[in-house]
C-alpha cells in the first residue's frame, strides 16, 4: 500500500444532496447540502442520531445510492468523471450481515476481487483471511459461520480489492467486546499501513477514542467537523463532582442558580464554565447548604455533551 499516490484528501464532497421519493410521492431530504473533507491517512468518525443521513452519505460514496446533486471525489477521482477509479478506491463494510450463504470466505473474496478486475497475481485473499482470523474457515460455507465470523468476513470482502479508503458502517453494533477489540486493533493496523478509515458509530466513547477527526451530521447537514480534541474543547462546561461523606438522598436546597444534579450513587454534580466560574466557590456553596464533603473531582466534557449541545438530541 506504500507505493500508492496519496492525495491530500481521501474524500472531498461538495454540495451533496439526496432527496428520496417515498411510496406516496412524498419527498425525504436525507442530505441537504453536505460539504465534507476527509484527510488522507486519518481515522474519521461520522456521528449522528438515527435518520441523520449517515448511511445515505456512505452509500453515495460506495456508489450504491445515486446522489441528487453535488460532487464527490474519492482518492482524487471524481465520481461522475471517473466512476471506475473512484469505486476502486473505496471499500465499504455494510451494517447488515449480508453474506452469500453458498460462498466460502475464500470464494467470496476471490469473487469480490474479480468484480473489481484485480488480476489473480495481485489478489491477497489468503493473507486477508488470515489477518481477520478466518484462515481455518477459508473453505467453510458462509452460512456455517458465527455472527462474529460473518462480520469479519464482510471486513475481509471490503478489503479484497485493496482500497485506499475503508468505510465501516456501524461496525460494532451488536458485536461482543472481544471482537470489538480485535476489530479496532486491526483497523488501527490498516490505518498505520496507510488506509484512510471512515467509520460511523453510535458509541461516542469509541469515536472519541478511535477518531482523529469527527463530523457530526444532523438532519442531513454537517453540524460540526473538527479534530477530536478541538471538538471537545468547544464545550466550556466542566463538571465538579462532590462526593459526600454519606450518599445524598436529594439535591440540597440552597443551591439556587446552580444546575446541580444528584447522581444515582448519591454524588452531587455541578456544571461550571471553565475559566469563568471558580469550582472552589461551588464547594463552599455546597458546604453552606449542609453537604459534608468527603472528596471532590472534576470531569471534562465528552462527546455526548458536544452532541447534545449541537443537536439537542441525546445519542443512542
Ligand atoms: N430508500 C429510501 N427511501 C426513502 N427514504 C429513505 C431511504 N433511505 C433512507 N431514507 C430516509 O432518509 C433519511 C436519512 O436516512 P439514513 O439511513 O441515511 O440515516 P442514518 O443517519 O444512517 O440513520 P441510522 O443511524 O438509523 O442508520 C431518513 O429520514 C430515512 O428515513
UniProtKB/TrEMBL annotation:
Keywords: ATP-binding, Nodulation, Nucleotide-binding, Transport. It comes from Rubrimonas cliftonensis. The keyword Nucleotide-binding applies. It comes from the Bacteria. Transmembrane segments: none annotated. SMART domains: AAA. Signal peptide: none annotated. GO terms for molecular function: ATP binding; ATP hydrolysis activity. SUPFAM superfamilies: P-loop containing nucleoside triphosphate hydrolases (SSF52540). InterPro entries: AAA+_ATPase, ABC_transporter-like_ATP-bd, ABC_transporter-like_CS, ABC_transporter_ATP-binding, P-loop_NTPase. Residues 11-244 form the ABC transporter domain. This is ABC-2 type transport system ATP-binding protein. The keyword Zinc-finger does not apply. Pfam families: ABC_tran. Belongs to the ABC transporter superfamily.
Amino acid at each position: 500500500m506504500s507505493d500508492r499516490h496519496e492525495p491530500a484528501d481521501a474524500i472531498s464532497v461538495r454540495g451533496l444532496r439526496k432527496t428520496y421519493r417515498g411510496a406516496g410521492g412524498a419527498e425525504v431530504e436525507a442530505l441537504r447540502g453536505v460539504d465534507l473533507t476527509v484527510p488522507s491517512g486519518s481515522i474519521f468518525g461520522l456521528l449522528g442520531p438515527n435518520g441523520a443521513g449517515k448511511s445515505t452519505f456512505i452509500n453515495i460514496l460506495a456508489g450504491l445510492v445515486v446522489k441528487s446533486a453535488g460532487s464527490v471525489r474519492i482518492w482524487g477521482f471524481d465520481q461522475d468523471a471517473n466512476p471506475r477509479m473512484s469505486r476502486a478506491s473505496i471499500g465499504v463494510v455494510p451494517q447488515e450481515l449480508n453474506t452469500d450463504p453458498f460462498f466460502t470466505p475464500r470464494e467470496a473474496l476471490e469473487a469480490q476481487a474479480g468484480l473489481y478486475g484485480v488480476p489473480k497475481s495481485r489478489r491477497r485473499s489468503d493473507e486477508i483471511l488470515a489477518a481477520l482470523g478466518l484462515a481455518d474457515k477459508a473453505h467453510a460455507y458462509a452460512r456455517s459461520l458465527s455472527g462474529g465470523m460473518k462480520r469479519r468476513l464482510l471486513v475481509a470482502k471490503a478489503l479484497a480489492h485493496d482500497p485506499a479508503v475503508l468505510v465501516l458502517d456501524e461496525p460494532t453494533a451488536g458485536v461482543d467486546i472481544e471482537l470489538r477489540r480485535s476489530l479496532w486493533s486491526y483497523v488501527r493496523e490498516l490505518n498505520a499501513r496507510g488506509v484512510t478509515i471512515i467509520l460511523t458509530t453510535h458509541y461516542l466513547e469509541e469515536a472519541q477514542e478511535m477518531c482523529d477527526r469527527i463530523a457530526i451530521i444532523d438532519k442531513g447537514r454537517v453540524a460540526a467537523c473538527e479534530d477530536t480534541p478541538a471538538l471537545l474543547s468547544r464545550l466550556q462546561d466542566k463538571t465538579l463532582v462532590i462526593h459526600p461523606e454519606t450518599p445524598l438522598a436529594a439535591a440540597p436546597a440552597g443551591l439556587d442558580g446552580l444546575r446541580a444534579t444528584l447522581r444515582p450513587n448519591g454524588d452531587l454534580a455541578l456544571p461550571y464554565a471553565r475559566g469563568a466560574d471558580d469550582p472552589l466557590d461551588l464547594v463552599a456553596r455546597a458546604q453552606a447548604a449542609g453537604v459534608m464533603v468527603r472528596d471532590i473531582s472534576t470531569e471534562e466534557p465528552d462527546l455526548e455533551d458536544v452532541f447534545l449541545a449541537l443537536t439537542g438530541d441525546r445519542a443512542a
